[in-house]
Amino acid sequence: MSRSVCSRMCLTDKLFFWKQESGTGSRYQLKKERMFAIIKEQEVNIRLDQIIFHIDVNSAFLSWEAVYRLAHCGEQLDLRKVASAVGGDTSLRRGIILAKSIPAKKYGIRTGEAVWQAKEKCPGLVVVEPDYKLYEGCSAAFMDILREYSDMVEQYSIDEAFMDMSESCHLFGTAKEAARQIRERIREELGFTVNIGISNNKLLAKMASDFCKPDQVHTLYPWEIRQKMWPLPVSELFFVGRATAKKLFSMGIRTIGELAAADPAWLKEILKKQGEVIWAFANGVDLSPVLDAPPANKGYGNSTTIPFDVEDLAMAKRVLLALSETLGERLRADRAEVSVVSVGIRYADLSYFSHQKKLDNPTNLTLELYKTACLLFEQLWDKRPIRHLGVHTSGAGGESFCRQMDFFDRTDYGKLAKIDRTVDNIRGRYGRDAVRRAGFLGQPISHMCGGYPL
Ligand SMILES: [Mg+2]
Q1: What contacts 169, CB < 8 A, 6 or more positions away?
Q2: DSSP β-bridge partners for residue 233
Q3: Each residue's pLDDT tens digit in the chain (454 positions)?
Q4: Are 141 and 190 in contact (CB under 8 A)?
Q5: Which entry of 241, 254, 313, 332 is 20 to 30 Å from 365 by CA?
Q6: Are 110 and 153 in contact (CB under 8 A)?
Q7: What positions carry a catalytic annotation?
Q8: What is the 310 CA–ligand 1 centroid distance (Å)?
């Protein structure tokens, strides 16, 4: 953590405690005062000259597909210039739109909607299937360029990153000049375009990169909030989802400016913690630092939409095993163990139920995860046809290498760990299909489900 961030955080704490000790007014008033303290401190933040960039690849999956197909497959058609989308296979029911071109946007096609719905809006829509390996490669190349400009780069998602340019910006000129340089290098060397938002904190930089697309650099400094951010619809504020926007609308709050002017105590009463956060965001306040190392993963999970409705226990258990295989592999790769396992079922009518259990001993053994998942599943399932199954975990920590003995449990956990390690090694060297359980032979599902965050 940089020194400027440390000093900013201490300052906030001091202001908060000072307000608390002074003992003025109710709890809500204190909260309100704390908010104003943070805003005041934001002015200190400006003086500390923090320069934060948010870089966002324009229509990432689609751009990456287009560039790859033009450069390596000899295709003449640039997907970015026609109504096109990246979407899952409709025959497998994973058919949702993951990314769309700007011409496709004009037909009202939205990310997350079903491919068949999108095709109804635009019958000539070109849909290509996703290639995650390619996207991971493109993302890594994009991140490598960013790291040449700052050693404080936080990868926020596969196609977004924050950079703390406070220390290195002067080497490349003004903040705008540095951003232009990064944008041009990515376009020339990697062939796709990005938007870059510049500000003094992460929230404002993220809002700025969203302004006008593609291939643009925008600033949103605190003194520009009134003019550039407050007139926008409240639904465009980061952290305001569709449900929250609807609630805010019913409260008479339509723009970000109206949210900023609202009473934070009132917002907290209705929207709880989120009310406080979005009020601070609407006022341009965000104290989170750029983290150059990703935070430790607290939970691991895996879920899959099954190509057909599952109606028998044996098939459901097979899917749970396939999910546990990938989950266990990821846990062991991170040298992590989990202490809570949960199973989620989405029925054919799209209703969703879940059930969880705390384990006696943290684990990352595939068979133990699977057995717990089966137990939970049998307690939860009401025999209706299943469309989607998930195995999720929480309470992740490092490997403990010890286990509370149970007089009645004769399982040889050391042996299970050895088997898992051996299988991981074989799969690591020869591919995931090099070893598979016999139970999956001739079955219509993959022996290792999921693996990509959905
Ligand atoms: Mg993007």
Answers
A1: 51, 175, 178
A2: 255
A3: 343 333 333 333 333 333 333 334 334 444 556 666 655 555 544 445 689 999 999 999 999 999 999 988 888 899 999 999 998 766 655 578 888 998 999 999 988 888 888 999 999 999 998 888 899 899 999 999 999 999 999 998 889 999 999 999 999 999 999 999 999 999 999 999 999 999 999 999 999 999 998 899 999 998 999 999 999 999 999 989 888 999 999 999 999 999 999 999 999 999 988 898 899 999 998 888 888 776 666 678 888 888 788 999 999 999 999 999 999 999 999 899 999 999 999 887 777 888 999 998 999 999 999 999 999 999 999 998 898 899 999 888 888 777 777 888 888 888 999 999 999 999 989 988 889 888 888 888 888 875 433 2
A4: yes
A5: 313
A6: no
A7: 160
A8: 35
CA dihedral 251, 254, 260, 263 (to 10 degrees): -10
Q: What is the DSSP letter of 134?
A: H
Question: Which residues touch 402 (CB under 8 Å, ≥6 apart)?
Answer: none
- Quote the ligand 1 centre to 205 CA distance (angstroms): 14
| Structural domains present in the chain | 3-48+229-282 (1.10.150.20), 50-222 (3.30.70.270), 301-440 (3.30.1490.100)
Separation of CA 183 and ligand 1 centre (Å): 14
Q: What b/e sequence results for 219-251 when a residue is b if at least 16 CB atoms lie within 10 Å of its CB, and e otherwise?
A: bbebebbeebbbeeebbebeebeeebbebbeeb
pTM of the predicted protein model: 0.65
Residue with tokens 């050391």: 414
